[in-house]
Amino acid sequence: MQISSVLQSDVTRLKKVEYVRFPLRLGHDVFTEGRITEYSEDRMVKLMLAYQLLMELHEVEDFMACATSAMRESVNGMEVRDRIAGRTGIHINIIDGQKEAELTNNVVVKALDNGQYLHVDVGGGSTELNLYMDQVKMASKSFKLGSVRLLEGKESKSAWKAMQNWIQDHVNYAIPVKAVGTGGNINKLFDLSSKLTEHSTSLEEIRRMRDYIASFSLEDRINKLMLNPDRADVVVPAGDIYIAAMEWSGAEVVKVPDVGLKDGILQLLYERHLRKKKPAVMK
Fold first, then answer.
1. Is 245 part of a structural domain of the chain?
2. Are 185 and 123 in contact (CB under 8 A)?
3. Does residue 270 form part of some domain?
4. Closest alpha carbon to 242 in 122, 124, 97, 69
5. C-alpha closest to that of 151 among 40, 63, 233, 251
6. Is 49 in a helix, a strand, or coil?
7. What's the angle, vertex CA 101, arms to CA 98 and CA 104, rounded to 5?
8. 221 within 8 A of 213, measured Cβ to Cβ
């Protein structure tokens, strides 16, 4: 959850006021059992109540809650959503892969220069790919490959092949291509890597850092590398997805702008706020 305030000057900016991240790991349930367990639902209720109290303290004017691949695929996802709404007052929007990509793209595109870019967004259960040419999205696709899904061994060879084929069918190899990476795992790999610029590094460096982390046991990743437990186990499989996408596309450089779905949601909320303030046109 991120709470932001609007700063009005020459350029409107959103300032982060509060940020809370808690790993529920719904994918562990869904990718192994196909449904969200009662235990996980209870934890979701507690988390939504905590978020609700924080929003009340900060006097939040508007909010939006979104769920992605785990609740999309859960056989009881909508039932859980409805029960949580009844118990907490927070309605969770279960968004499809296209909407997830759209919200993320709305903020990612601002970080792009002209040229060809392959945007790779790796979540727990899915990976969204988007191809840009001169800041215009040319194609997009969602794949059932994600860090938690790989950790649980629930990915399929066909999903890997489908992603490879999509990249090779859509990338123009006659034009240089760069990658854009979003998601918590690429942010962590980037933070630990040597940089080319403030917001970019090389494929070689991402490979090196992925292999370096993989050389440690899970316990040592937490105690020696000081990774959060929920990051320590998924960062390597997530790295495999970013690396594969870059290799298949021919991208040797990845830009990591540190934006994602939450930033797209914030932008959507701000635009909705502006529409509410706009006076009605009398006819």
1. yes
2. no
3. no
4. 122
5. 233
6. helix
7. 150
8. yes
Q: What is the CATH number of the domain that holds 168?
A: 3.30.420.150
Same domain, yes or no: 168 and 217: yes
Token pair in block for residue 29: 């349930």
pLDDT tens profile 17-60 = 999 999 998 988 998 899 999 999 999 999 999 999 999 999 99
Structural domain count, the chain: 2
Residues 119 and 250 in one domain: yes
pLDDT along the chain (283 residues), means of 10: 88 89 91 94 97 96 94 95 96 92 89 95 92 95 92 87 98 97 95 94 97 97 94 96 98 94 93 77 49
Residues 83 and 173 in one domain: no
User: Using one digit for the tens of pLDDT, what is the confidence trace for 61-94?
Assistant: 999 999 998 999 999 999 999 999 999 999 999 9
Q: 19: domain range?
A: 2-94
